[in-house]
Design a protein that fits this description.
The chain is mainly α and about 150 residues long. It has one domain. Helices cover about 45% and strands about 0% of the residues. It contains seven helices and no strands.
Length: about 150
């Protein structure tokens, strides 16, 4: 006899917000696996580290989205198989992507295609160098080749 697990999954990145996953319709997504990706990212802190390597040159008066949220949105879209930035205009409303980026389905939409394209085009060589160096240190520490103090 098949046994079904009826326990709900909890996601620490949602903090005090409640997210229920069911098959009753409403806000529908086929990308709920992104919640697990976000949970792993939360544990590793990888995208937060990468975001800290990028100098945010945007004028805060005209900024609607946090840099880390935009990076999460772009990377999670790629992870879900939407490597083309054009998909952002449809996906910015997706409840699973919004939850993975730290928003609830009822919150404002995520970044648009032009916003993500500007993000991709604003990253400098210096930013890329910091990102590469940061990843190298992160991986070296993870496999035990470098002490955390270096």
């Amino acid at each position: 006899m098949t046994k079904f697990n009826t326990e709900q999954l909890g996601f620490s990145f949602l903090r005090k917000r409640k997210l229920t996953v069911d098959f009753g319709g409403g806000e529908i997504t086929s990308d709920s696996g992104l919640l697990l990706v976000r949970q792993a990212d939360q544990s590793l802190g990888l995208l937060e580290r990468l975001a800290n390597c990028i100098t945010d040159r945007r004028d805060a008066r005209y900024t609607d989205h946090d840099l880390l949220i935009l990076i999460r949105q772009r990377i999670y879209q790629i992870v879900a198989g939407y490597e083309d930035c054009n998909d952002a205009n449809c996906l910015r409303k997706d409840p699973a992507l919004k939850a993975a980026c730290g928003s609830m389905p009822s919150d404002k939409e995520l970044g648009s295609q032009p916003t993500l394209s500007r993000l991709e085009n604003t990253v400098t060589q210096e930013d890329l160098y910091r990102m590469g160096s940061g990843l190298l240190i992160y991986i070296s520490v993870a496999i035990g080749n470098v002490s955390r103090s270096e």
